[in-house]
Every structure is written in structure tokens, then in C-alpha cells.
Amino acid sequence: METALKLFRSNIRQYGMFIALILIMLLFQFLSDGILLKPLNITNLILQNSYILILAIGMLLVIITGHIDLSVGSIAAFVGAVSAIMMVKHGMSFPVAMVLSLLFGAIVGAWQGFWVAYVRIPSFIVTLAGMLLFRGLTMLVLDGKSVAPFPEGFRSMSTGFLPDLPGGWDIHLLTVLIGIVLSVLYIFMEWRGRLVQKRYNLELLPVPFFLIKLAAVVIITNLFTYVLASYKGLPNILIMLFVLVALYTFVMRKTVMGRHIYALGGNEKAARLSGVKTKKMTFWVFVNMGVLAALAGLVFAARLNAATPKAGVNFELDAIAAVFIGGASATGGVGTVIGAIIGGLVMGVMNNGMSLIGLGIDYQQGIKGLVLLLAVAFDLYNKNKSA
């Protein structure tokens, strides 16, 4: 029992919000009379929150470095508007338009990163200016009107599903098989990691807890894929999210760039004296944020099948809330990609659950605000306790 408590205390940031997510899901499953976890609603949850989760990944890196980006919603709206002009008005093929849109997002990120990294203007001011600038440009480009419809191939990015194996199965068989393959890969990677830890005489998780952890992840993974398989299978956007999470988790955990980002957020002066090119790193973090904001704008436009002047409103607040709820520190230097995703899912499940039980938007906003405040207070409490 003491070992379990010790493990929980040492990983409370990592596991605390995951446990909260499970409890919130069970609560709304009960209050909504079982609607929340139905296959159709789970699929809708993924589709509705995909662009916020994409933004949360980029926002995590910005917040780890000790900065903030208030412009991502406006950039997403502007890129969606530009992509609509290219595809709908000028008939450009959607792959070319998407590449150009992502390049444009990188340019916008570079513009803001320059002012933050090299001119040393606070990121709050730079991105607030960007929020106003790109919101105005969105209205200008669209002339205050929606532009639609997008090509079918482009829309399938947000609304399409992975095709099934031939044979006319009662369930989406390929999705079930993918769940099994992911489970086997996870067990293999965890076991290999444990052998490496043992070889270097590092502290190991006790065998019973290690097996419980493996079993829990495998069960949750296969239940999740089974629920999706009961409807239409894996949404295309979920595959994109999985690739992004895997890529950014690898970058932040295993690469020099990831270590430099954490060092920059932990103590910029010490990082600079240690050889970290802090200005260059800050610049590229904002470039990355611009690209992911552009991608989120494309995903949102594809799901809506239209570019609208009011797209992206409050996206930045949802992304920031997801990162902080997921365990990132308000002072920088702390946070994980998985944590940001869990934070985004907490927000998404709360939005969906409160809508299912008929709670008014006024109550929803107030409850979300309280959850964000409590999450940051919990983070500061843990930090002060550990100090």
C-alpha cells in the first residue's frame, strides 16, 4: 500500500488528471443515461475536439518555454479563409492548397516569433496584436461572408473514416485489429524499456504494478477501438492526431530540441549559459505553433465544409486551458504532450456531457472556468509542497 501511495505521489501530475478524466466520463455517462459512451457520441467527441487537441500540442511547447499565444484562433480562421479562396474560388487542388496553407502558417509563426525572440517584445503583446490583425484580415478576405463548399477529398480529412477490410463484417474489423496491434506494440515497448532500466540499475516499477499498468492500457485501448468499430471505425482525423502525438512525444522526450525547450522554460539565463540558443529555439517554437494553428484551421474548415468569418473564436482559450489542465506549469519548464491531450479531452468531455444533460451555456462557461482555476491551483500546490 505504501508503495502504491509513493508511486501516486511521485506521478500525481501525470496520473491525477487521467483519473479525473475517467471520473468525469463516468459521471456524465450516469447523468446522460448512458448516451456519453455510445459509439456515435464517442466519434462525435473526437471530431468536435480534434482541432483543439492539435492546437493544444503546439500551445504546450509555447507554454513550456514560458510564453503564450493568443493569436492561434485568428490564425486558424485566416488560414481556413485563404484555403477556401484557393480551393473554392480558384479551383486549386486540395493537396497543393493544404501545403501552401501550412507554409503560410509557418510564415505567420515566423513573423510573431521574430518579434518575441529577437526584438524581445512580450509574447502576450505580440500575439494579442496578431489576434486582432488576423481576425481583421479574415473578415477582409471573406468580405464578411462564408465561402463553401470544399472538395470531397479535403472534407474527408475531418469527416472521413478508415475503410474496412472486404467481407461485409458486422463490425469494423480493421479497427479491432489495429487495437490489437497497438496493444502488442505497447507491451513490447514497455517491456524493452524495463529491460533497459534494469541493465543500467535504474529504479524499476514493482512487477505487480507494472503488470497492472500494462493490463489497464491494453484494456482501455481495445475497449476504445471496439466502441469505434461498432460505428464506422477509425476517423481519419484520429489517425492524424495519433501521428502528431507520437511525433511530438518523441521530440520532447528523446531529442536535443526537446531537452532545450524544457531547459529554456525552466531557466532561460541558465539555458543560454549552458549553450542553448534560446532566441533561435523561441523563434522555432512559434513557427511550429503557426503550422499547427494552420492545420487546425484546415481541419475545422473541412469539418464545417465552409470558411466563416467567425471561425476560431475562443480556440486559443480552449487550447491554453487544455495545456494547463493537463499539468503544464504556468511558469514554464513543465508539461507533457499526453498531458495536454488529456486536458483537451477533459474540456471536450465536459462540453459534450453538459450539453447532453441540457445545462445552459452560461453554467458551462462558469464550470469550465472553475475547473481551469482549480487545475492551476493544484499545480501550484504540488510545486510548493515539493519545494
From TrEMBL:
Entry's localization field: Cell membrane
Any one GO CC term of the record: plasma membrane
GO-annotated molecular function: transmembrane transporter activity
InterPro entries listed in its UniProt record: ABC_transp_permease
Database matches in CDD domains: TM_PBP1_transp_AraH_like
TM helices/strands, residue ranges: 12-30, 42-63, 94-117, 124-142, 171-189, 210-228, 234-251, 281-300, 320-346
Protein's name according to its UniProt entry: Xylose transport system permease protein XylH
Function per UniProt: Part of the binding-protein-dependent transport system for D-xylose. Probably responsible for the translocation of the substrate across the membrane.
Entry annotated with the keyword Zinc-finger: no
Keywords: Cell inner membrane, Cell membrane, Membrane, Sugar transport, Transmembrane, Transmembrane helix, Transport
Membrane topology, from the record: Multi-pass membrane protein
Record-linked NCBIfam families: GguB
